[in-house]
Structures are given as structure tokens and as C-alpha cells.
Amino acid sequence: MQSFIYDALNKYEPELATELHQLPHAPPFVFSEFVQTGPYQTNEDGLTCERGYWVINSDRKTIIDAVANHARHNEVQLGHTEVPIKGADLEAVETETRAKYRTMSPVYVSQYEDDERVDLHPDDGMWFARVRDNVRDRMEAKWEETPDELIIEDVHWFKTSRLRTSGEGWATGTRMEVTLRTDTRTSEFIQTMGLGERTGLGFGCVMPVNQIPERWR
Q1: Domains contained in the chain, CATH given
Q2: Percent of the chain with pLDDT over 90
């Protein structure tokens, strides 16, 4: 999906595409994994489905418009399979002050120990501090604002998940449902810019559960 987004920008917003390629930090968008919605079938290759979707969020309308236009006229490459795109829905982010969020792609959090990057998960107390610090640091850097409130009330469930980050590189993030209490601007930031680190590589896309359409669950 990352390549699909940049293909869209190269076609519709080439100057912005060049700008984003030169950024020293994560680009201003976040995207989900391919979420399968069924109906499901089993065959000799395993489980297959007929439908699914991606979520792409950004605080820049030009990025969303470029991706939506590209989606209306193209297919997306999923592994070795070209998947036809049947439609693109544009929806405004609805802020929440207290909500249960579901990860649409794993949330990645880490810390350095003796110059080695160590993946963190919610069973480590440092995970909570690193999530809060990361949101604060990125919000200050990108929006020049500071969260008024960001409290992680509960992690309802989680499981770890590995994603490829480069040719031979992997990172282990966390799929989960988590209840957050925030101010409205922090809620908007988390939804449009992602939660955690490496958001430009396919990590950190989250949505309030009550905003996920029933047909997507």
C-alpha cells in the first residue's frame, strides 16, 4: 500500500511526492493492512476471501484526494495478486474524548538498550510511557501543539505481529484494542497521523471501534 500511495502522489501531486521522499521522518499519512471481510472459503492454498478494504488517513487533503483518484482508476498489488478496487469512500475523522480504538495495522513501540533497538509490547510497563512520549514528540514536531490529555485506560487484548520494514528487516508490533482518554486535537492527531513509531511503513493505523462500519468488522 505504501507504493500505491506514492504512485498516486507521483501522478497527481508530483511536487508533494518529491517533498515526502526527502523527509527525514515519517510522512504525514498512515495506512492499514488489507482487512478481509469475507465471505471466506477454504481451499488447498488456505483461507481466501472475496472482499476487503484498506484505510488511509492523513491531515493533508491533497494526499487523500490523490489516493482516492488513483484508486478509482487502478488496481492494487497484494503480494503477487492484482486486486481490483471497487470504490473509494471519503470520510471525515470524528474526534473522540474517550473511546476504544482498534488497530487496523500493528502499533510499533521501541526503546534503545545499549545501542540496540528493542521492540516493546503492552506487557512491558515502558510501552505505555513510550506511546505517550511518542505522541507528544510527534504532535509537537508536526503540529507544533502539545496533547492536553492522553491517558491509556486499558488494553483489552493484544497479540504481537511482525511486519517487514525493509529487504531483510522486520519489526514486531502489537495488534490490540485499547481505550484512550484524550482531548479532541490529540484524538484527531492519533487517527490521522497514527499511534506509535514507523507509521510511514505500515504501522500505527487505528480507528475508534464505534466508527468502524458494521460491514467492515
Answers
A1: 2-84 (3.30.70.1890), 98-216 (3.30.70.1900)
A2: 59
